[in-house]
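Re: that backbone. Tokens:
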């Protein structure tokens, strides 16, 4: 029993230390973000790398989500004679919750692990130390550009994924129920309101920031040689996924309070 409590205490202590170090890392980001020089070219390169190379994966995933969600929901709605509500239900569900969180989780695996492995390999091969010796600020060049790129590109990826998911849903309805493109998307745009779109879009910026922050933190502080690179990439995905769910819960909770008022 004593050994169990000792292990539990050690795990809790390590968790609090990790939270503190991550908070300090985030504080350093906001502190150095405003200071020149600004690595604009590297920022654009990271935006292209993150957005362009993740677009196909996000598009395919969104399309499959739209197909599967509609195929699974249609029989239930048919039992209640509510198939006409399919477009409204699918669009609200995807825009509010399914699209943002699924896309963020995919990007956590695709982008977060990539950033963690890239910066981790640079850390263990002493490339970051070489940048400091040469007079370049590695934190601004490597960390700030990547966090900003993920923060700005993830909302765009979510928007693309949502649109493709809704289009995938339309294809099912068009084949199964002979619903026209005009009718389907008229129902989609009639049911959607700013209260559905704005909160869902705002929280995607926080999702992107979390992905970039954790990936950069794990990679930038990678230790224990080349074995630490794999651990950094794996930990970046695990920590980011947990953080995404926490952010999503807080965002939904705050949104509900706002609408209750």
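Recovered sequence:
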């Amino acid at each position: 029993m004593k050994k169990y409590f000792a292990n539990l205490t050690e795990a809790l202590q390590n968790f609090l230390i990790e939270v503190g170090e991550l908070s300090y890392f985030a504080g350093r980001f906001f502190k150095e973000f405003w200071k020149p020089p600004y690595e604009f070219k590297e920022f654009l390169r990271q935006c292209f790398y993150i957005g362009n190379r993740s677009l196909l994966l996000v598009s395919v995933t969104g399309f499959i989500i739209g197909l599967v969600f509609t195929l699974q929901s249609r029989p239930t709605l048919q039992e209640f004679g509510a198939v006409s509500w399919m477009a409204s239900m699918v669009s609200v569900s995807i825009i509010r919750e399914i699209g943002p969180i699924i896309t963020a989780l995919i990007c956590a695996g695709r982008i977060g692990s990539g950033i963690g492995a890239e910066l981790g390999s640079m850390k263990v091969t002493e490339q970051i130390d070489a940048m400091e010796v040469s007079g370049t600020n590695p934190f601004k060049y490597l960390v700030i550009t990547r966090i900003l790129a993920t923060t700005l590109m993830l909302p765009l990826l979510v928007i693309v994924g949502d649109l493709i998911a809704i289009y995938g849903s339309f294809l099912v309805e068009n084949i199964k129920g002979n619903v026209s493109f005009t009718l389907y998307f008229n129902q989609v745009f009639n049911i959607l309101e700013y209260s559905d779109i704005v909160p869902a879009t705002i929280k995607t910026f926080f999702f992107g920031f979390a992905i970039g922050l954790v990936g950069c933190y794990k990679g930038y502080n990678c230790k224990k040689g080349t074995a630490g690179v794999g651990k950094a990439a794996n930990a970046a995905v695990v920590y980011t996924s947990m953080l995404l769910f926490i952010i999503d819960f807080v965002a939904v909770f705050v949104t509900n309070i706002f609408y209750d008022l």
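The helical segments are 2-33, 40-79, 86-124, 127-133, 138-177, 181-191, 194-220, 227-260. The mean pLDDT is 87.
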